[in-house]
């Protein structure tokens, strides 16, 4: 096994994703309705969203996940993995990420990785996949917001060429934590971009400007 499998997020993933969301972001977790709303815009010829999950295959599973994106079942709900007597342990969602795109601009809505997966490179895999989707959407730039105190995520984004361009004051509620806004000019999403020679201290108020338009959805970083 080479690690978690990345695949399209579907409606049946909302429950485990929401559980991980609340564990990682207890103060500003997305609601179930927000995930439903995002997935409603993730399919069809006019789709503007792409959401992916990282899934650890079920224990004892001998088959690789099917390629492609299966259609919804005609009726009813699929049986949960492991429901039958002696069935395998259900697959586990250990990460997820989402992208919104419109008018040549992409926006990383969220990236989250289970704590026991930190340091494995899963966050970089999720971000790389989002940037592939940004290219498919013909985005020229990709934006994201990240908490100013989340330096671990900021270092990941800098590796991919994201640069700080401003702040959104009090963006993360109810903690009233500022968001650092970062931007990437889309080039080759297959590999991280070289690190810049200098990095901007997000606590330096003289560097990026203060952005006050709350148009982008929350990004947990």
Automatic annotation (TrEMBL):
GO terms for molecular function: acyltransferase activity, transferring groups other than amino-acyl groups. Pfam families: Acetyltransf_1. Residues 57-91, 187-221 are annotated as: Disordered. CDD domains: NAT_SF (cd04301). Keywords: Acyltransferase, Transferase. Residues 4-187 form the N-acetyltransferase domain. This is Ribosomal-protein-alanine N-acetyltransferase RimI. It comes from Streptomyces thermolilacinus SPC6. The lineage of its organism: Bacteria, Bacillati, Actinomycetota, Actinomycetes, Kitasatosporales.
């Amino acid at each position: 096994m080479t690690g978690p499998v990345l695949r399209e997020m579907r409606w049946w993933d909302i429950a485990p994703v929401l559980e991980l969301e609340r564990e990682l972001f207890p103060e500003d977790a997305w609601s179930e309705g927000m995930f439903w709303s995002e997935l409603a815009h993730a399919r069809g010829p006019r789709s503007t969203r792409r959401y992916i999950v990282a899934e650890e295959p079920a224990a004892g599973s001998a088959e690789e996940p099917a390629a492609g994106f299966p259609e919804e079942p005609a009726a009813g709900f699929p049986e949960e993995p492991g429901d039958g007597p002696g069935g395998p342990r259900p697959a586990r969602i250990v990460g997820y990420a989402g992208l919104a795109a419109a008018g040549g601009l992409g926006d990383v809505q969220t990236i989250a990785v289970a704590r026991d997966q930190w340091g494995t490179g899963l966050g970089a895999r999720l971000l790389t996949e989002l940037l592939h989707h940004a290219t498919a959407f013909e985005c020229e730039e990709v934006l994201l917001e990240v908490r100013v105190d989340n330096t671990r995520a900021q270092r990941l984004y800098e590796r991919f060429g994201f640069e700080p361009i401003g702040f959104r004051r009090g963006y993360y509620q109810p903690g009233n934590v500022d968001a650092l806004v970062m931007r990437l000019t889309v080039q080759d999403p297959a590999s991280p971009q070289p690190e810049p020679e200098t990095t901007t201290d997000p606590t330096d108020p003289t560097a990026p400007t203060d952005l006050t338009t709350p148009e982008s959805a929350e990004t947990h970083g």
